């Protein structure tokens, strides 16, 4: 509130409000006030806000010094879930969403003040640096591919671009392989995550102004097709052919939207009170309530659709030669590379259960069988 003397002209409070608003935006590097990057003269790629941008009514539990937040890429299942939950709890004009297709973000968010910028992992490092300008807390969602070399090629430069842009803390979406936060994994899909974590740790150890948190997101319940030779509940087969017997250590499946919700809470927690954040310069593992063997996983799928389904263990070559598998991966060689995931599962890397997700959410995470029943039920409606 602005206190006003009775003798003040009516326009004075409005001027003071405008000055305060501009000062806030300048402190947080808002693109409306910094349309051009001062170092390069290049324009920040910011999508115009449709209509007016209202000043937010700040929730009582959020301090006025909350750090500015960015999500990149703000797309896909995890990214969309994270920003959807985040924008329910933080001032929307404190958030920047960066993606290849920013126009896909619902208008509701932009009308409430969310900033949109266009960039992707294929953007050059300078473009990424500009896209990250003005962001203090960045959620960097890993590139969606298991190809190690390419993932490293695009992710490490993105981390470096964020540092050059002045980002103070990077949340990185890692994956729930490698057991209980170890640095070793049999799965090829995990290698780029380990390399990215090492790079983040190296950056943080060499600079006092940059910190990180690696969130090892457990294996999504919704991702069961890739671990079951792309089993299709709408066109089910009797046998699932994978290079695994189905017995032994399994997977602590976790609902993707609960991962997005928990991730948003971690981001909000750090942005509001960075000094007291529990996971600075460290890793955490978010999992479901219990490990499901692959045999039990397939049994659950069968019971949900009312059909008996079983696993038949085959060689890696036989697995990779299946038309639906080779078609999804693009080649047998790529499919064989992915098959290392079953070696990791067999070794118990994905069977770890931690209480962390439940502690963050404040409730018990949803069981795999419920998620699957809801997922298949929705697909059939």
From TrEMBL:
<dbReference type="Pfam" id="PF05368">
    <property type="entry name" value="NmrA"/>
</dbReference>
<dbReference type="InterPro" id="IPR008030">
    <property type="entry name" value="NmrA-like"/>
</dbReference>
<dbReference type="InterPro" id="IPR052718">
    <property type="entry name" value="NmrA-type_oxidoreductase"/>
</dbReference>
<dbReference type="InterPro" id="IPR036291">
    <property type="entry name" value="NAD(P)-bd_dom_sf"/>
</dbReference>
<feature type="domain" description="NmrA-like">
    <location>
        <begin position="68"/>
        <end position="320"/>
    </location>
</feature>
<protein>
    <recommendedName>
        <fullName>NmrA-like domain-containing protein</fullName>
    </recommendedName>
</protein>
């Amino acid at each position: 509130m602005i206190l006003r003397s009775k003798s003040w002209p009516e326009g004075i409070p409005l001027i003071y409000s405008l000055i305060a608003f501009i000062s806030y935006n300048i402190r947080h590097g808002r693109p409306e006030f910094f349309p051009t990057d001062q170092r390069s003269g290049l324009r920040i790629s910011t999508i115009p806000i449709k209509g007016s941008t209202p000043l937010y009514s700040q929730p009582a539990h959020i301090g006025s010094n909350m750090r500015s937040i960015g999500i990149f890429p703000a797309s896909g299942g995890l990214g969309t879930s994270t920003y959807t939950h985040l924008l329910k709890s933080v001032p929307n004009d404190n958030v920047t969403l960066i993606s290849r297709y920013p126009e896909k973000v619902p208008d509701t968010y932009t009308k409430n003040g969310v900033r949109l910028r266009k960039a992707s992992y294929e953007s050059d490092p300078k473009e990424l640096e500009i896209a990250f300008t003005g962001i203090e807390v960045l959620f960097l969602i890993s590139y969606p591919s298991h190809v190690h070399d390419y993932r490293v090629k695009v992710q490490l430069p993105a981390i470096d671009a964020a540092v050059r842009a002045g980002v103070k803390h990077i949340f990185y979406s890692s994956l729930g392989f490698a057991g209980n936060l170890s640095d070793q994994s049999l799965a090829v899909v995990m290698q780029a995550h380990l390399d990215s974590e090492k790079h983040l740790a190296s950056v943080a150890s060499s600079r006092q102004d940059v910190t990180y948190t690696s969130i090892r997101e457990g294996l999504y319940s919704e991702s069961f097709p890739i671990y079951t030779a792309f089993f299709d509940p709408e066109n089910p087969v009797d046998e699932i052919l994978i290079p695994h017997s189905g017995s032994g250590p399994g997977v602590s499946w976790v609902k993707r939207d609960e991962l997005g919700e928990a991730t948003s809470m971690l981001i909000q927690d750090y942005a509001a009170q960075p000094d007291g954040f529990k996971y600075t310069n460290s890793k955490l593992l978010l999992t479901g309530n219990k490990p499901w063997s692959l045999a039990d996983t397939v049994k659950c799928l069968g019971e949900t659709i009312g059909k008996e389904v079983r696993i038949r263990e085959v060689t890696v070559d036989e697995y990779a030669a299946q038309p639906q598998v080779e078609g999804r991966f693009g080649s047998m060689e790529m499919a064989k590379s992915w098959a290392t995931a079953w070696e990791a599962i067999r070794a118990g890397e994905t069977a770890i259960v931690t209480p962390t997700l439940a502690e963050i959410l404040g409730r018990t995470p949803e069981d795999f069988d419920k998620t699957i029943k809801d997922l298949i039920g929705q697909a059939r409606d």
